[in-house]
Amino acid sequence: MLAKMMRVLRKYGILLFESDCILGRMRDHMSGIKTSAIIEINQTASKYNSSIVIRIGTKHIDAKSILGLSVTLLSDQKYKLEIHGPDEEEAKADMLNVFSKHGLEIE
């Protein structure tokens, strides 16, 4: 599974060497969003049972999918959060904080 994920990351220019993934130092995404922001968005979303989807225009990205976040988030876009579930209020507050911390605009 890890080998397959690393091939996909390399294909999209996110991963240059296996050591980057193992050491948690993936190259910053070419879109301008730092890898640390993508990882923090993903880790924050993964703490909650609620469904957390980031909408960008007509695209819908599962915030719990690191690969989905890595290949679609751009720094100059406006995002909309769609959160549904038992802990949606807490999840929304945390996600808004993370986006704000990294200078990402939420509609």
Describe this entry's structure for a reader:
The protein is an alpha+beta fold and 107 residues long. The protein has one domain: Histidine-containing Protein, Chain: A (2-Layer Sandwich). It contains five helices and four strands; from the N terminus they run H-H-H-E-E-H-E-H-E. It has helices at residues 2-11, 18-22, 35-46, 66-72, 88-101; strands at residues 51-56, 59-62, 78-84, 105-106. Strands 2-1-3-4 form a four-stranded mixed beta sheet, covered by helices on one side. Strand 3 (78-84), helix 5 and strand 4 form a beta-alpha-beta unit. Helix 3 runs antiparallel to helix 5. The protein is globular and about 35 Å long. The termini are far apart. The model is unreliable at 15-31 (pLDDT under 50).
Using brief descriptors, characterize the structure shown.
4 strands, globular, 45% helix, alpha+beta, 107 residues, 5 helices, Histidine-containing Protein, Chain: A, four-stranded mixed beta sheet
Q: How would you summarize the topology of this molecule?
A:
Blueprint: H1 2-11, H2 18-22, H3 35-46, E1 51-56, E2 59-62, H4 66-72, E3 78-84, H5 88-101, E4 105-106
Parallel strand pairs: 3-4
Antiparallel strand pairs: 1-2, 1-3
Helix pairs in contact: 3-5
